[in-house]
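Lab notebook: predicted structure, single chain.

Context: the supervisor wants predicted structures on file for every construct in the current expression panel, including those that have not yet been purified. This is the next one on the list. No modifications to the sequence; it matches the entry in the shared construct table.
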Amino acid sequence: MLKQSVAAQLCLTSYRKEEQYKQTLLGYNPDPHAKKDSILKDGRQIVLSLYRPEDKEALVSMYASMSPEAVKWGLPPYDRARIEYWTSDLTNNITLLARLDERVVGHLRLFTIPFARRKGIGELLIYIHQDFQNLGLGTLMVRKAIELAKERGFHRIGLTVVADNKRAIKLYEKFSFKKEGIARETFYGDDHRYHDEVEMGLLL
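Prediction complete. Output recorded below exactly as produced.
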């Protein structure tokens, strides 16, 4: 009888740990109709989660399948070495993934520079897989990143975006990012032309 009681207690403890793990997945909800902020415009539900070391291969796979159009305003390469660098130090950084089932379809990185004079100053980058663009995923990810940044005591989020990337600028302005300056002809594009870049910032 005692053995059965101990076994039942261990089973209950294991269940509770599993439930606690599920709750670490930002956006997780057992009822897909109960939480609307993880629903894409096409009705699919995604899960936002903080990066874990075991997510590396899924993240590598996402970038390996990105189309040239999806990263044309970015700074390649997006190979394994780059991703390992991005995920090597998670101490003061926020690395947010968007998942559909086991597939990673979005990646947001909010990182800090480890200098006392840059305390609480974060820099943001975000990439969305081409199959999930124009579905509101960028909005979901930026909103969650701002929430996390406030919880962790960030003072400011800054970013740099190519001036011709109008869609991204519109997204950031939705969250009250302000244009703070223009760096003239600092981005050399696939079209073999130089493009301006816009500095934007949000005070939290």
